[in-house]
Design a protein that fits this description.
This protein is α/β, with parallel strands linked by helices. Helices cover 38% and strands 14% of the residues. The strands form 2 sheets. A 5-stranded parallel sheet has the order 7-6-5-8-9.
Amino acid sequence: MSGLRSKHLLGLEGMTAEEINLILDTAASFKEISERPVKKVPALRGKTVVNLFFEVSTRTRASFELAEKRLSADTVNISKAGSSVAKGESLRDTAENLQAMKIDVIVIRHGSAGAPHFLASILDASIVNAGDGSHEHPTQGLLDMFTLREKLGGIEGKRVTIIGDIAHSRVARSNIFGLVTLGAHVTVCGPPTMIPPRIEELGVRVETDLNRAIGEADAVNVLRIQLERQKVNLFPSLAEYAVVYGINRERLAAMKPGSIVMHPGPINRGVEITQEVADGDRAVILEQVTNGVAVRMAVLYLLCEGGSKDKSPSIEDVVGEKSDSRVN
């Protein structure tokens, strides 16, 4: 497969296994760049990427910015507080004004589900969804799958349990879409009040007993309770949640040997995961963060015609070009 079918990355729902694997394979090639003394290649020199973040973010925003700079793209960062949206300007007007400046890609995080899809319908620029409401967070799903593939040697046939606030988690949705497409067996686990109705239709198994959910898992992906998205209290207390659904040393010991613990962040230590587990040998949380830069480099490269061999240098040519001080 030479490239992606769409010039946008709006979600993993509907993507083929070939497209997902293309991104993961490309990310594997790009990961080495971050180990070089000069972490830069000229793959997207001349391209302009705008990071339009209407929600707070640490990992995702920094990861995208680093990915863009390591590909030599020109980067502009805009937050809600620092934009004319704070003065009442609409999302459409903001985006169309940016497009008038001849930008190539908009990376958007927005509290409303569907905001990236709306921009894709009205703009010529490529749109990358960096998280829209409780809908999807595709690059997080991709970096989670990249980490699973690295640590477990593959994804097909592996058992992955996603634990926590499934109903409000865009990370859970993107993971489910991607993992099921690649042939993993996915279980979701959490309080019944945090499991959306009919989620089994997405090809997952639902479990409310944590011990059963993690017993045969090759990996557990632990989510935080998203209190900022919950309109009502869905659990008696955080302390009780930690007792019933938290991953602690005892539960880690009950998991199968070689299984791993993941977390998309931010971590609420002592609630969904204890400090000793988060900082332990079985946790791959910081590796997920490292892999996020490579995955986002791959996404940007492929969307900016990098996947089309008759328009841009191949990934082998790009990665093979050793960075030096002349790359700026």
